[in-house]
Every structure is written in C-alpha cells, then in structure tokens.
Amino acid sequence: MNKRYTISVFTENFIGILSRITLIFTRRGINIDGFTASESREEGIYRITIVVHTTEEQIIQLSKQIEKIIDVIKAFYYLDDEMVFQEIALYKIPIDNIDSGLERVIRQHNARIISAEKDFVVVEMTGHKEETQELLEVLKEFNVLEFVRSGRVAVAKPMETIDKYL
Amino acid sequence: MKDSQIRGAEIVIKSLVAENARYIFGYPGGAIMPVYDALYDYMDHIQHILTRHEQGAIHAAQGYARVSGQVGVCMATSGPGATNLITGMADALIDSTPLVCITGQVASHLLGTDAFQETDVVGISMPATKWNIQVRKVEEIAPAIAKGFHIARSGRPGPVLIDITKDAQTAMGEFNYVPCLNIRSYRPYPKLDDKAIDRAARLINQAKKPYVLFGQGVVLGKAEKALEEFLDKSGIPAACTLLGTGAISESHPNFVGKLGMHGNYGPNLLTNQCDVLIAVGMRFDDRVTGDVKRYAKQAKVIHLELDPGEINKNVKCEVAVLGDCRISLEKLTGKVDQRTHPDWIKAFRELEAEEKRVVVGNDLSPTKVGLTMGEVVRHINEFKSDDAILVTDVGQHQMVAWRYFEYKTSRTQVTSGGLGTMGFALPAALGAQLHDYNRQVICVVGDGGIQMTFQELGTIMQTKAPVKVVLLNNNFLGMVRQWQQLFFDKRYSFTELDNPDFIKIAEAYNFRVQRVDVRGDLRQAVAEMFVHEGPYFLEVVVEKEDNVFPMIAAGSSVEEVRLS
C-alpha cells in the first residue's frame, strides 16, 4: 500500500551528492514530491528531506540504496505521524483586486503579508500542504498571479540523533 | 616555488606507485598528456599497457583485478576516451570488481564551455561507479586517489572514477601520500550480530533439507576455506552461481553443481524442495531465481551478505547475517552440528545422472557430424593445468564453457556476469594473463563477441601475453538465435553473420593459429595449443544451430528447468 514517507538524509558536503541521490529514484521510476536541502545542526553536514509516495517495502530499499552512497552518513525514513513538518508557501496578489475580504482570509489562515509593492502584495503561509493548498483555493478570488510552495522541512519525533553515526 | 614541489601529473603516478599498482591499462590523449609525460620517467616503477581502445583498457583492468584480487587501474583522456570506459565501469559495478579509473579533463576554466573533448564524465559515470570525483586542484590529487583506492577495494568492491583537470595536472604541488583508511560516512564492514548467527545455526540444525548457494562474495571475502569447513562439518549440499564458480573445488563431495538459467538440472529444481536455504555472498540475480514469486517459497532463507542493500532486495529472508562472510561462516561452523545428508545429496546425484544422460553425454561426446562447444571444453580439460584461468565472453559459449570447464581453485573464472558485456573476454584475458605470465589463460569466445574488441589482439601481440584464444565459431549470435528458435518462431532476425577469415586476422597479429572443422583434428589441435609458448589462436567451427540446455526460460520457475 502506498503511503507518504519522508526520508531524512544526512550527508557530507560533496559535489554531486544530490545527483547521486535523485538517480536512485529516477532509476526506479519513483516521483519525488518534495525535496529540500540545508546545513544541519552539525557544521559541514547537510540534511536533505525527500518526500515520496511509495510502499514500505520500497522505502526500506530506497533508504538502503541511499545509504550505500559513500558520502551519505545516514538515511532515516518516517511516516507523517512520526515527524513534525512544515512547508512554506508564497502567494502574489495584485493590488487591484484587494478588498477587506483579504484581511479576513489572512487572519483565518494564520497567514501574513510579507511585502507590499506598488502593484502587488506577497502573502506568506507556513503549514502542511493541505493547509497551504486550501489558502490557494480561497485566494483565487483575489487572482493569484504567482504561487510557490517549498519542499518539506521536518524533524523526527523519535529521540535519535545523527551524532551516534559520526 | 619550493624545490620539493612536483607537477600534479607526477603526483598521479607517484600515488599509483604508492598504492603498489603494478599496471596501468590505458590510452593517451590531449587532456591526460601531462600524466603520460610524467609516466615516461616512471617506467621502472609501474608498467603501462597500451590497449587499442579504452574499452579494452578497462576490461583488461577488470581481468587483472578479478584474477589478482588487486585493484585494477585504467587511464584515458577526456571526452570519448572517458565515455569509452563507461561499459567497463557498469560491468565492474554490477560484478563488484575493484577498479580505479583515471581520466583527464579539460582545464578547469574551460569546464562547461563545450571545449574540445569535454564531456561531463562525472555525471555520465555516476550510476556506473561506486564513487567518483572531479579534481581541479593539484593538492587534491593524492587524497582523491587514496580515497579512491580505499573505496574501490573495501567492503563490496567496485569501480571509482577520478577525473583530473589538465590544469591540476600541470600545477606544482607537494607530494605527501597518506593512504586513506577511514571515511566518516562510509562503513564498508557492517558489524556482525552474534544473535543472527545463533538464529541461523538453530535453523540449520533443525533443517532436514538444508541447501547452500554461494556466490562471488565467498571469493571477494576470501572465505573459500571457511565455506569448505562449513560444508565439511554441516554436510550440506552446495551449489554455486556463475561468479561464485571455483570458490570451492568442483570435486568437493558436497558440491552439487551450478545455479541459474543454464545451470545444472538438480541444483535449480531442488531449490524448490529444500527447507532451509543458506545464501552466501550472492544476490539472487533474476538469472538465478527465475520467477521470483515461485522461488524457494517453501524454504526459510538465511542470507549471509556484506551489502545491506542486498538483504530482502529480491528474496525475503528469515535471518539476515550481515557482515564479512568469512567471519560469519567461521562462527556458524562453530555452532552447527556435525551432520551428513546422504539421502538429500542423493536426490541431487540422481538428477545429475539424468542431466548426464539427456544433455551432457551429447554435449561432450557427440555422435553427430557437427562439432559441439562442449567437446572443445572436454579437450581443454584434458590438457589444462589445475590452476588454469578460463575467461569467457557472453553467450552460448560462455554457458557451455562454464558448465563443463573443471574449476579446481578460486579466481580461475573470469566472465562478465551481471552486465553480460559482449567483447569482455579478449581484453579481460590479457589482463588475467598479465597477472601471471606462467599461468594458463584460456579465452573462450564466440564469433560475435570477439569482433567487438578484436583490436585487442594487437595489445596481446605487443605484450607477448601467451593467451590461448579459443574461438567457437557458429557463424551466429548463438544465444539470441537460440531464443529466436525457442520463443520467436525461428525468425532469425539479424543473428547470422558473414564472418571474415579469422585465421588470417590472427596471423596478421602474429598469433600461432589453427583452424579445426572436423572432429578428428580437434584433440591434437588443443594439445598443440597448450604446448605452444606464445599467444595462440584456435578457431573451432562448431555446429551452427546447437542449443544450450538445461534452460530455465525467462519468467519460468526454477522447477520448470528443462533438459531439452
């Protein structure tokens, strides 16, 4: 049965590591739903967060194949309820269409305006995909010129840290 | 600039010397020229073998690595030189062969500009290497080579690629070689779990029909003796994969034969009758399992394996014994009961007798007019020495030679297993021979495959490597033709070859030659080949439309192995 999994990969900062990781998915024809990379708590160690829809059997194999990459320190995989995660979304809305309804929508969704320019404002919201998607649907009446959503950032609920693998 | 500084190109060579590399198999070109220039001063320290094509260089490095157990080294220039190595890298990756490949690259300021002979070889080779790196600074050359050797040879071995820009080769730097022994993110030897050993031993001791399958992991882990001792004590019958062949002598009383699509009848069939299946250093390739959904479903599987990625990949196991199989086997031997399995082994011997009656007899001692590949191998067995190395290409001749060659010792079998690379044999045989000029190296090859790397006859000529080339010529791409006959209604689409006069070609390369097309001349010709001291080329014209049996058709179950 397909479920949504998040793989957390800890890697050395090595050129080409992202290509090597994504090749593991492309070779097996698995679509990557979300991908983010940043430096982790440890200086010089990068943390890559990958979201995929797949089976448990497949996610185990994917994690093992990722760990086979020389510069990968460790790969963990989790179901959604084993993680605390967020995504960020930005919505660009033209000034012309703004009325008091926008304030209500922003308040209701815990969003905020992070930039107001001559012709448009940019609304920002963090949350799960379902939540940012819902705001997109609501904002459509104000004519969303541009929309972008980040990949997932996530921390795991289990109290295991990367330290023991270093 | 300090006096102690040397060019990056010289650092490349000194690093290879520091790693005790004996040979570089390579081909020069623009972007690697500084290294070739440096090599000119080091000819007493390291031998360079100039092949006739980069693919020949890497297959020769593979042959050398497989026989010697050392890391094979090959070198090429950028662009086409580098891309010509790719097939060999893919082959070495799937067959776990340790290689360090060094390629020249355009100068770093030209990277990404589509400069002459620029290609993104790091990108192209990514899925075909265990690790790769581009070096653009002189001070990074030695550390990259040190890391490359460590990665290539440790854990599950594999090919690495080090791509060095031309400006890094010409820049000056200090040479201070520090071997790489540890990489923080890389754990090549997983820690053995003693509980897994206990559970495995318990299963084995309770088993009525235990069955051992062993692969190349036994050879790579130097576990030949440990396996033999395990088999001696446990009394369990054992069969080998293509690349595991020779790990223990075929005359061992527990050895029951070979696995896979064209393996032996009993070992395949009885896979679905054992109750405990002990897989040692093998990866359940689809050519071994047939239809995996109908593979050993009745059995509890114990998997001794170094690579965690192989556990439960193709076949689910009851007990995974992760780790070096030599240590695992030694520990298991300590815990299993001393037993014999006479009835169970008899079941194998009965099926072996049936295979002999239906297949082997006709292959080895045919009564029809046309010569068989099998009878050629029978005569090779008659004259070869015990430590002779058999190098084969891919196809019918590969399967027949593998089935009938009498393997006595480890590392005597060199073939392209996982990738099935036609053209592998001739250069690989050269590499195998260079490991030891005094060992017999027999290169059995088909008329299709030999023409893919024919040019390496020139390298054999130049090195005077006394390779014995046995060309089994049926004027067909025989294995494909066999499939066309069996599964495509005899529609022989592009499998028949109009061949050149192979003898004239081999003669032009200074080989002693012989062509045999009647049975009466065969034995004498093989005898003469072994007596001759230099390179020898024996062409045997065999029956055009012979088939290799037994066979498990693609998608069939191991129990559907057919004898005809």
TrEMBL record, chain A:
InterPro entries: Acetalactate_synth_ssu (IPR004789), Acetolactate_synth/TF_NikR_C (IPR027271), Acetolactate_synth_ssu_C (IPR019455), ACT-like_dom_sf (IPR045865), ACT_dom (IPR002912), AHAS_ACT (IPR039557), AHAS_small-like_ACT (IPR054480). Belongs to the acetolactate synthase small subunit family. Dimer of large and small chains. The lineage of its organism: Bacteria, Pseudomonadati, Bacteroidota, Cytophagia, Cytophagales. This is Acetolactate synthase small subunit. Keywords: Amino-acid biosynthesis, Branched-chain amino acid biosynthesis, Transferase. The keyword Transmembrane does not apply. GO terms for cellular component: cytosol. PANTHER family: ACETOLACTATE SYNTHASE SMALL SUBUNIT (PTHR30239), ACETOLACTATE SYNTHASE SMALL SUBUNIT 1, CHLOROPLASTIC (PTHR30239:SF0). Residues 6-80 form the ACT domain. It comes from the Bacteria. One of its GO terms (molecular function) is acetolactate synthase activity. Catalyzes the conversion of 2 pyruvate molecules into acetolactate in the first common step of the biosynthetic pathway of the branched-amino acids such as leucine, isoleucine, and valine. One of its GO terms (biological process) is L-valine biosynthetic process. Its EC number is 2.2.1.6. It is an enzyme of class 2 (transferase). The keyword Transferase applies. It catalyses: 2 pyruvate + H(+) = (2S)-2-acetolactate + CO2. Pathway: Amino-acid biosynthesis; L-valine biosynthesis; L-valine from pyruvate: step 1/4; Amino-acid biosynthesis; L-isoleucine biosynthesis; L-isoleucine from 2-oxobutanoate: step 1/4.
TrEMBL record, chain B:
Keywords: Amino-acid biosynthesis, Branched-chain amino acid biosynthesis, Magnesium, Metal-binding, Thiamine pyrophosphate, Transferase. Its EC number is 2.2.1.6. It catalyses: 2 pyruvate + H(+) = (2S)-2-acetolactate + CO2. The keyword Transferase applies. Residues 197-332 form the Thiamine pyrophosphate enzyme central domain. GO terms for cellular component: acetolactate synthase complex. Belongs to the TPP enzyme family. Binds 1 thiamine pyrophosphate per subunit. Binds 1 Mg(2+) ion per subunit. InterPro entries: Acetolactate_synth_lsu, AHAS_TPP, DHS-like_NAD/FAD-binding_dom, THDP-binding, Thiamin_PyroP_enz_cen_dom, Thiamin_PyroP_enz_TPP-bd_dom, TPP_enz, TPP_enzyme_TPP-bd. Its cofactor is thiamine diphosphate; Mg(2+). The keyword Amino-acid biosynthesis applies. Residues 7-122 form the Thiamine pyrophosphate enzyme N-terminal TPP-binding domain. Pfam families: TPP_enzyme_C, TPP_enzyme_M, TPP_enzyme_N. GO terms for biological process: isoleucine biosynthetic process; L-valine biosynthetic process. One of its GO terms (molecular function) is magnesium ion binding. Pathway: Amino-acid biosynthesis; L-valine biosynthesis; L-valine from pyruvate: step 1/4; Amino-acid biosynthesis; L-isoleucine biosynthesis; L-isoleucine from 2-oxobutanoate: step 1/4. Residues 393-540 form the Thiamine pyrophosphate enzyme TPP-binding domain. This is Acetolactate synthase. It is an enzyme of class 2 (transferase).
